[in-house]
Amino acid sequence: MSNSPKDDTTRPAPTGMRKGLTSYGDEGFSLFLRKAFIKGAGYTDAALDRPVIGITSTGSAYNPCHGNMPQLLEALKRGIMLAGGLPMEFPTISLHESFASPTSMYLRNLMSIDTEELVRAQPMDAVVLVGGCDKTVPAQLMGAASAGLPAVQLITGSMLTGSHRSQRVGACTDCRRYWAKFRAQEIDQAEIDDVNDQLVASVGTCSVMGTASTMACIAEVLGMTVPGGATPPAVTSDRMRVAEETGRIAVKVAREKLTIDRILTPQAFENAMRVLLAIGGSTNAIVHLAAIAGRLGLELDLRGLDRLGRETPVLLDLKPTGAHYMEDFHHAGGMATLLRELKPLLHLDALTVTGRTLGEELEAAGPGFAQDVVRTRARPIHPQGSVAVLWGNLAPGGAIIKQSAADPRLMEHEGRAVVFENAADLAARIDDPALDVTADDVLVLKRIGPKGAPGMPEAGYLPIPAKLARQGVKDMLRISDGRMSGTAFGSIVLHVTPEAAIGGPLAWVRNGDRIRVSLARRELALLVSDEELAARRAAEPVAVPTAERGYRKLFLDTVLQADQGVDFDFLAAPKRLGKVPQPK
Ligand code: FES
Q: Which tens digits make up the pLDDT trace of 151-174?
């Protein structure tokens, strides 16, 4: 073998175990050593000559949303081996919503770095990203988009629903509903304890259209999963068949060198935004889509998203916007049923990991059948998309409202601000009987944005003050620079940009100020003069949060705002290539 640098240009790019050799200054020795070590695990040369399919394993005792990982990986590896590939499982960070402090969002970018660098560093011809819980799929798609290899997403699948006193329940819209009843003293301690046993009936991701389900649907419409990969529940045979099929497709994308940038195109992102709007998807998915697009040099345009929202009805009757659960969506035909209905609004020529277009896969899925989970466009759940974008002097960079889960009465509203300076202030005073608050007021929470908390926690779902909850108040207008869980509902304005912690106008709102929200005009206005705001800014300058060391320092020094996906500035693609959706 010649070592001449000239020969490198004519040599085919190395594949399989020959890829990305560790640097010892002698390629032949590097490969010899690598094979010697892997043979220690009992591999033969025949196995090591196959296309190598990396598998990001995200099983963790702290992550019951991924509790089916062993069975899933067995089926996936079977599919890879049946197709002639060699599966190579490796661990990455795993994140669960309830086991990550201060919030899983704080660690999403770390998981994306972990995924990107391990995919880059280890020899593989393609990677299967196995994830499910809210931040895992976005982190994996971000990392894989930056690594640039052929990649296929495998979703862990949703949990089954449970039953409380003959009422069907599932995490976590019903978690919030029952907790609100408990706070309002409508149910007692014994009953809330009973509910706690029933909300999560199996392993798997939340059973409503929270962030995990939203990202599963988005991964499928992006073309990153096999057809039908979004909806089978975690513990079903359908889910295992999806895993096996994912293995087969992973070997195919490896052989055909179908890299992720050919799947994640501007057309694919526009399809994803349509689906997000039509499923009543989680507002968090907007942040994640912006981050994934940013890795490919694409900027998610909030004005464009709002335009799509005016044209895209909500069709999926799932909680929290509607009545059903993910397993019902699966029984109703899953994403094919929805996409058939959305067909005129989609780019059907977008390529998927199967090598066929979205339109071809839809044809292959066959005709639909009678069902009551996906509505027709003639009879939508909501005539416009689930999300609207607001602007104004309180949010020059935009703010999000999930209009489909809000009280229409509060969508044209002016009220008095009741201000909480941060999450600790909220916790200390929200249930104080002396709190000066009425149902017509606007609850404002500051400093829960990307830098504020830090990590932009899902604290935007401010609880109704206990004294009002006991009077039967179920909803109020609430505003913050944070996020809320996709499983939550209410008249809640989120992602106010720029955030209070870096001196966004939200920082200067005071108790008693008037705030106006108009969905019709897409307006979020603080009815305070520019002069008065400038005077407040000068009198009380904001101290932007910093840290001395470690990941916290990296986070606070480099995290971007919500409209840019809360990614780290150095992780986004260096060149901007355009906007999604593309301007009309
Ligand atoms: Fe994992 Fe809801 S907590 S998906």
A: 999 999 999 999 999 999 999 889
pLDDT band at 2 (very low <50, low <70, confident <90, very high): very low
170 lines ligand 1 (CB under 6 A): no
Provide the token pair at 174: 């019903």
> Do residues 64 and 98 touch, judged by C-beta distance below 8 A?
no
Given ligand 1 and candidates 156, 202, 205, which is best to mutate, with the most ligand atoms within 8 Å of its CB?
205
419: amino acid identity, one letter: V
Ligand 1, closest atom to CA 64? 1
Q: How far is the CA of 577 from the centre of ligand 1 (A)?
A: 33
**Which three-class secondary structure string do you get for 429-492?**
HCCCCCCCCCCCCEEEECCCCCCCCCCCCCCCCCCCCHHHHHCCCCCCEEEECCCCCCCCCCCE
Q: Taking 90 as the threshold, does the pLDDT of residue 52 lie above it?
A: yes
Helix, strand or coil for residue 166? coil
CA atoms of 185 and 468, how far apart (whole Å): 12
Is the link from the previous residue into 463 a cis peptide, with omega within 30 of 0? no
Does residue 135's CB lie within 6 angstroms of at least one atom of ligand 1?
no
Coil/strand/helix, residue 160: coil
3-state DSSP assignment of residue 66: helix
